[in-house]
Amino acid sequence: MTRPDDWHVHFRDGEALKDVVPDTACRFARAIVMPNLDPPVTSVTQALAYRERILAAVPEGVEFTPLMTLYLTDNTSAQEIARAKQCQHVYAVKLYPAGATTNSALGVTDLNRVRDALSAMEDAGLPLLVHGEVVDANVDVFDRERIFIERVLSNLVERYSALKIVFEHVTTSHAVSFVDSAPATVAATITAHHLLLNRNAMFAGGVRPHHYCLPVLKREDHRTALIQAATGGSARYFLGTDSAPHPRSAKENACGCAGIYTAYAGLELYAEVFESAGVLERLEAFASFNGPDFYGLPRNKDQIEIHRARQDIPPTLPFGGEVTVPYRAGEQVAWSLAK
Ligand code: DOR
Ligand code: ZN
After folding, report:
1. Would residue 1 count as lying in a domain?
2. What is the pLDDT of residues 41-74, one digit of tens each?
3. What pTM was estimated for this model as a whole?
4. pLDDT value, residue 339
5. 231 CB near ligand 1 (under 6 Å)
6. Fewer CB within 10 Å: C terminus or N terminus of the chain?
7. Contact at 8 Å (CB) between 127 and 164?
């Protein structure tokens, strides 16, 4: 198949880069790199420096292009958006509602504060990537995406009618219905873990911190809706792993972090989903065509080969001097990359 891209990945920084970047770079030609570092990547200058650190972690002989993003804050100026537009390495701006997830404390507290930035993005044709959950403590954690659509996203789509919006890591049938009937400016990414797991996976025989992510896993009927969206042939949906490694100690913790590490099998896990839906032939559009088409970028020209051959997933993987526990640790994935 045509080499795919990952339209949503967390690489982290520092020592960890050399451990995680190769997993993505060996499968995907490009990846949209999330800016939720600590401190976050809020300026083009920071994004360019981060890009260099990522490139230094790409293995010899591998061609990989990180597509950088900026972290939207209440203080992001229209000038910074103009700089991002000018810069050939920044491809989008990420909206984290303040407090919604990992390193989102400096995110947006009120959309009225970012009107100038959003208008500038609309003019520049720079996509807004949205973490679509409300942060209202009175809203049940399983309802946060649905309520976000009602309270925030509908208005955003209406008010900024030319703004390209990617509803990131959708997890509910509500999100799928919204995207299906939204204008063509709206698309969505879907993770492998939300396609493969429902919320029971967090409590199978006890609390399973390695299955905790945000948005949190949902019930089976939502997972079914996501599978239909991903495999149904709509060009609105594309691959975004949301691969989000944390050190084991931060996951196996009284207050464990959200995030699931999937990049080491970032394409193969999706192949399982498309195979069991009986539409393997649609994997290529989801993984390799719909994303670049929406972003207005060329599709990749080279090919990648994956086989229906089991790969063993190690119990842990190195992670910046610590270890991270990958999804399927100690188990298997049904597909493998050709050597
Ligand atoms: O599970 C998640 N992990 N969801 C997010 O939104 C952030 C990510 C992370 O950075 O760890
Ligand atoms: Zn993410």
Report:
1. no
2. 999 999 999 999 999 999 999 999 999 999 999 9
3. 0.98
4. 78
5. no
6. C
7. yes
Q: Write the pLDDT tens digit of every residue in 13-46.
A: 999 999 999 999 999 999 999 999 999 999 999 9
Our mutation pick for probing the ligand 1 site, out of 101, 169, 260, counting the most ligand atoms within 8 A of Cβ, is 101
Q: Which of 131, 144, 214, 243 has the most ligand 1 atoms within 8 A of CB, as the residue to mutate?
A: 214
Tell me the C-alpha distance between 294 and 273, whole Å: 22
Domain CATH for 54 = 3.20.20.140
Instruction: Round to whole Å and give the CA distance between 39 and 22.
Output: 23
239 ligand 1 Cβ < 6 A: no
Question: Which atom of ligand 1 lies nearest, measured to the CA of 131?
Answer: 6
Domains identified in the chain, total number:
1
Reduced to 3 states (helix: H, G, I; strand: E, B; else coil), residue 180 is: helix
Residues spanned by the domain of 117: 6-337
The dihedral formed by the CA atoms of 142, 258, 217 and 165, expressed in degrees to the nearest 10: 80
Residue 36 to residues 44, 50, 138: CA-CA distances in angstroms?
Answer: 14, 12, 25
Between 268-276 and 220-231, two packed helices, what is the crossing angle to 10 degrees?
100
Neighbours of 189 (CB within 10 A): 25
Give catalytic residue positions.
242
